[in-house]
Amino acid sequence: MTYQSPDLTTAPRLENDVYEFYREVHFSKPAEGVKYEEYLKQIVNKWESVFLAYINDWNFLLQLRLRGYEFSFWLNCFHKAYLHTLVQAKLSDIFFQPSTSHNEQWLIQNILRILRNLFETTGFHEHMNQQNERYEKRIDAIREAYCATSELSIGAMDLKFYLSYLEGSEQIYNIDELTKAFKAFEKRLKQQLWYGIQVMFTFYHVVRNTRTNRYMIRFYMTIHKTFYSEQINYTAWIAQLWSEETARLGILLDTFQLENHANSEFIINDVSNDEIFNWVEPNDPLENLDHLPKAVTTTSKQMDKLCVYPIGFKPFHGKKGSFF
What we know:
Elements: H1 10-27, H2 36-52, H3 55-61, E1 69-71, H4 73-88, H5 104-119, H6 122-150, E2 157-165, H7 175-190, H8 193-198, E3 199-209, E4 214-223, H9 234-244, E5 250-254, E6 268-270, H10 273-276, H11 285-291, E7 308-310, E8 316-320
Parallel strand pairs: 5-6
Antiparallel strand pairs: 1-7, 2-4, 2-5, 3-4, 3-8
């Protein structure tokens, strides 16, 4: 049986559904001859059924917000409406439990009513604009930092690795454990002598891979052309450090071939990109930045963005290495 982690499955589904509800309420128009009030009622009734179909899943998922996790934009809107509904009804618990007076339909109706009222406010759209502007500035800052670093070594080497973990370990390596392991991995990597001499820039992007039902990290190292060494097996180093920081459950997913591959104790899965990914893969940090959603409020069923992650963790980030 495949483990279905709520942050991998329920979260992106709920994020997309809330976004689609917003789009229908805010942008769609009734057919000619249909009153707007009747049309709006049809929309709400449809979405009541949609959210009711997996209420147990998202009711459990929403508890993560108060346990040290951040939510993506639309998920956060839904969670605020959820909590407000419970507070207004003077229910003592933050976890909804149906009763004769407050059943599942009551909960969803109130959440959608609050969301509709929120979506109609000018302040909400100003909030969207501010969040998107902040997001764009962050991407631009990383892009500028990468370009500025690259100018110091024309033809610098960009190495890319896919950090993941063994199939079947999903219950152990949820997003919380993954981020802890990655932070430890970064710390160990910086301690390597060759890293301080060669690495000019690093970039990572944590993505959801729906085909393998697990998280993966695109990790890039930009190495100064003069100091790049063919004598150093960078892939083996990354594989070893990642394996050690994940209790030997961490692997690299890529098409790399290792010398003495069969005898290596650090697993590298030699598979084609088509077996792992459903989209065109970026080759360097700039391409990866271009692959990011155009706005923090953008979402779709096909997107690989994180919807739940530990507070303070950045799903993607780039920074200068210790070379300079």
